[in-house]
Design brief:
With about 210 residues, this protein is mainly alpha-helical. It is built from ten helices and no strands. Helix content is about 55%, strand content about 0%. Manganese (II) ion (MN) binds next to loops.
């Protein structure tokens, strides 16, 4: 039960979610100035929301490998330790690719994480060409934390393309993705030197 006057409790929909047996919004029973609990909660939330999705490679890699890898690129290569940015990295595709709403993200993770996830979310109702053009147009106006997540997202996806061609993609489509990514990245630059050098490397190898 919610405490009197407090926010209503959020219970996961057990018919559609694999559960660990507890409510999603249960706060940790201790204070956590490190922010680690926010990151762990985001990892758990993303894993459950993406649980039935696969990457487009021939092996059918679990989709969650991608957001987990984006978060790891940020810590291991970008040297990012900001919990809000790392939580958003785990969550960055939940609204675009699952039934998760942006309001739910705000309710569970707060307004700062919401802003980053929102800026990482393409409107899938728009035509693909329009979505892709909007990413190029909007990149320079994104906040610094969003730029970090987007740089790591592109780095993961470009390395993934180098590793394995998605099912149904031909060489031309792969090249187009590299060319388009280069344009998006141009608008994200001046944010993190290590990530930008790594992106230049993968792009130069493939264009
Ligand atoms: N390289 C690669 N990408 C895969 C694979 N499986 C799924 N994806 C996802 O596909 C998206 C890129 O493919 P597109 O065809 O351009 O995207 P679309 O689905 O939005 O039209 C990325 O989405 P995104 O993360 O939202 O990024 P964005 O490219 O849309 O910005 C990426 O995460 C895979 O095996 N390899
Ligand atoms: Mn992504």
């Amino acid at each position: 039960m919610a405490e009197k006057g407090g926010p209503p409790p959020y219970y996961p929909d057990l018919s559609t979610e694999q559960t660990h047996g507890g409510p999603v919004s249960k706060p940790p029973p201790y204070s956590d100035p490190s922010g680690i609990s926010l990151i762990v909660k985001a990892a758990d939330f993303a894993a459950r929301r993406h649980r039935s999705q696969k990457r487009k490679d021939h092996r059918g890699t679990p989709y969650i490998n991608h957001p987990a890898g984006v978060a790891y690129i940020l810590t291991s290569e970008g040297r990012v330790t900001d919990p809000v940015t790392l939580a958003a990295a785990y969550l960055h595709d939940t609204v675009e690719d699952t039934k998760t709403t942006i309001e739910e993200i705000e309710h569970e993770f707060g307004p700062e994480v919401r802003k980053i996830v929102e800026e990482c979310t393409d409107d899938k109702k728009l035509h693909r060409d329009v979505r892709k053009a909007l990413q190029i147009e909007r990149a320079p106006g994104n906040c610094a934390q969003t730029k970090l997540v987007k740089l790591a997202d592109k780095l993961y996806n470009l390395r993934d393309l180098e590793r394995a061609t998605p099912v149904g993609w031909d060489k031309r489509r792969v090249k187009e993705y590299f060319k388009w990514s280069k344009e998006v990245i141009a608008g994200l630059k001046g944010t993190n030197e290590e990530l930008e050098i790594a992106l230049d490397d993968v792009i130069n190898r493939n264009l």
